[in-house]
Amino acid sequence: MTTFDDTGRVSFEAPAGLLEQDTVAWAVGRVRAAARTADRSRRPLSVGLSVAGTGTRPEGFPEPPSTAESYRTRTTADGDALRVRVSASDVRGLSYALTELGERIAAARVVDAIATGEEEHRPVVTVRSIQRAFSSVHEDLPWFHDRAFWTSYLDFLATQRFNRFHLALGMQYNYGAETTNANASDNYLCFPYPFLLDVPGFTVRAQGVDAAERARNAASLAFIAGETRRRGMEFQLGLWNHAHDYGLGARHSHPILGIGPESHADYCAAALRELLAAIPEIDGITFRVHYEGGIPEQGRVEFWDGMFQVVSDAGRPIRVDLHAKGLDAALLAAARKPDIKATASLKYWAEHMGLPYHQASVRPFERTPVSRARLGEAHAALMGVTEGERRFTRYGYADFLDEDREMDVIFRVWPGTQKLLLWGDPVLAAGYGRCATLGGALGVEFCEPLFFKGRKGAGRPGERDPYLPGELALGRDDWHKYRYTYLLWGRLLYDPDSPPETWRRFLRREHGELAEAIEDLLAPLSRILPLVTVTHGPSAANNAYWPEVYADLPITPWVRERHYAFDTTSTDWQGVSSFDPILFYGVGEYADDAVAGRLCGKYTPLEVAAWLEEFTGDGEAVLHRVRQDLASAGPQARRVLVDAEILIRLGRFFAGKFRAAVAYALWSRTGVREHLTAAADLLERAHEAYAGIVTVAAGVYRDEFTFGHALSERGHWSENLDAMADDLHALRVERDRATGGAEPVPVAHRATRPALDGVRLDVPERFERGAPLHVTLTGRPEALGRISGVTLHHRRLDQSEDWSRVRMCPDGDGFTATLPADLTTTSYPLMCFAEADLTGEAPVLVPGFRSGLADQPYVVIHSTTWKGGLSQ
To answer: Minimal CB count within 10 Å: which of 362, 423, 432, 677?
Structure first.
């Protein structure tokens, strides 16, 4: 079968029926649209399409790949025509080939500007997902019903090779059950069923929502699901809350009527059954199964077993994504039903966006269960599992990466670190692609920018766009600002080795001659906040900790800031843990070791400050060259300019704060006044950098960011200045009152570490369960000659366990250690890294980080029984 576009410049040849398939027709439409806007071509373009399993492969077509979502192309010049022959493993792979062809035509603006030769493309990460949340009736209902919005938004996601879209309902509030929901108000679509369905046999209603409005909501949800599927993506519906009433103090905008404890479980099951039948395009459901989802944990298995049975009875395979916090064996057993593909979704870096690697440890705060006695009987019934024996599942991979597990795993990148400012670093994005499948995980879901905007009743009509009215305002197209972010996430999850042209052609279309500068500007600046997140962890909660608009934690003990008190054991910077304490020093811990002269191989706060200064300086150097050009270019270039100016100041602020905190910690341990003076000077400059953000943002961003009602959700940069001033004032008073001071003492500072090139940790590709495991540190003689001793740190890939250490023995060309058979008698992968003692220097870690901070600083080893994953 052959068809032509309406200009006659592109023809398509395909087996009968293939071009009529929804996803293929959509992708062909993308090529045709690009061709219609292209300049005149020298010759026509013929595109032949073939999918594995649909018949004999036509002559001239390459062999189709066997991996799902893959394709091969063969492009030849045949007389006056250019021929592209596509062989794909499946329809989704074919759509990727076609959308890539459309992107190349659009970039070149010439239909036949396609290089001859052969190419092959296949995914590295199985699940590549974006999550969008409905958080506010005022700010989100307009886009929810906007068909034009969904057309352009989903077009872009599918073109960037996301293969799943998750629309989350019920995340307006942290808790769905009797905790801190005083004054909860906006509950539109939060307990979603009454806003969508009239369930036979029940009289449940959302007050103020009539049948016509329910039907409109259901029609929009069905449209979103259908359009997602039409573009070759799976549609995941998040049903995060099953509490119909937020309890005493709540002021529901739409009270749920006709339901009570006696009918709640039956109604939920019946409503879910109706929903799955009404919208067959729902491919998956995400449930929050711990107490925050509205179901008390005492007796929860009965409720969820009924819900899982409804999913199982739906008549089609459905992926049930179980939010992993508090997830235990009883719930997993309940989900083990026909046609349910169970998946645990794990928080990548708490509720934040960190570096691409997965933390080698979690904070002690999460390693300590809360006793039932401390919880009290009522709270133990409500949250006893999550806060007790499963507390370590709050974030990270916990104990879910067992090789013998019966469920899949994905990671979710939550929106705590960066909600507003533009992010774009190909190096870190590729790092996520390489690290996303740790332990055989299926992949990653990103919570998109502006996630939770208007949450907790903070939304206001017409104010989802964070920009003030004017040239930079985006209106309902606020997502357009972040297209570069989406592109990097999607394309570099699909293939971390994608050629730079993949994103550079987009930047050229968007910014013309400024494209290269904008890439170089955003890349280093986009590393600042993820690094801060990893190394300074006052709260795992996205609604409490927001490094982008930082609610100040003081460095002195004289200012009592209680904002983070619920989620850290420290009231100042000295005692705050990193989110990976096995690899990164806390400030006070570092000062203790520095004064004692016993630094270990952990990365120090001063090294973190140096990295931040490096990233800030690299971005600032680019901005110095192009600031005026950006200021006089289009609106998106000016948005880049403003955000870059803010990120530079944030980099200076956090680098200065780390240095000031270290100086103050040294003063408190040594009494040497020079440290106190340095702390005051450093903190003053850090605060000046932060205060400069207010000037940059003035007249551009709104004066209040509404992501909730707490200090770090509803604030603005200007609102944190008073707290910073209090800390600096207290520090100056302490400095001025300090007289004399102790004599200087030696301090083992480490602000950078020497390179140990040519040294590597050698491990077998696989280990035999129940057999000893040999690990070797090897390298070039001149590098090994600098090493006086080595400690091997090792553990199973299970964050509930402690790390162990063993001293490696010199062995001719390196150092060796043998891990005993009782360690390898496990169904978990093993992980290890080495700490090498250097003559005259503090120890260093191997493999450690390279310059881009996008690599994995430890080694993971699977057993010989590992098959590589579950749902490949």
So the answer is: 677
Helix (H) or strand (E) holding 833: strand 830-838
Task: Determine the residue type at 842.
Answer: A
Q: What angle do CA 584, 589, 593 make, to 5 degrees?
A: 105
Interhelix angle 501-511/483-494, nearest 10 degrees: 170
Q: Residue 829's closest CA among 763, 760, 761, 777?
A: 763
Q: Is the pLDDT of residue 342 over 50?
A: yes
Element containing residue 817 per DSSP (H, E): strand 814-819
Query: Helix 426-435 crosses helix 515-525 at what angle (to 10 degrees)?
Result: 60
> For strand 318-323 and strand 340-347, is the pairing parallel, antiparallel, or unpaired?
parallel
Distance of CA 74 to the CA centre of its chain: 36
The amino acid at residue 179 is T
Question: Could you tell me the residue ranges of all domains in the chain?
Answer: 2-121, 127-476, 527-737, 759-863
In whole angstroms, what is the distance from residue 638 CA to residue 700 CA? Answer: 10
| E strand or H helix at 344 | strand 340-347
Residue 179 has pLDDT above 70, yes or no: no
Look at residues 176, 180, 181 and name the one whose alpha carbon lies nearest to residue 191: 176
The residues that bridge with 205 in the sheet, in sequence order, are 257
Question: In Å, how far are 59, 145, 216, 255, 293 from 207, measured between CA atoms?
Answer: 64, 20, 16, 5, 22
The CATH number, out of the four listed (2.30.30.140, 2.60.40.10, 1.10.150.530, 1.20.1250.20), of the domain defined by the range 759-863: 2.60.40.10
Rounded Cα distance between 703 and 573, Å, is 28
pTM of the model: 0.96
pLDDT tens digit string along 761-778?
999 999 999 999 999 999
Q: Residue 7 — very low, low, confident or very high, per pLDDT cuts 50/70/90?
A: low
Nearest-angstrom CA–CA distance, 818 and 806: 9
In the numeric block, the tokens 């705050």 are attached to 576
- How far is residue 547 CA from its own chain's centroid? 15
Domain 2-121, what fold? Answer: Chitobiase; domain 2 (3.30.379)
Hey, how many other C-beta atoms are within 10 angstroms of the C-beta on 651?
A: 29
CATH class of 127-476: alpha beta
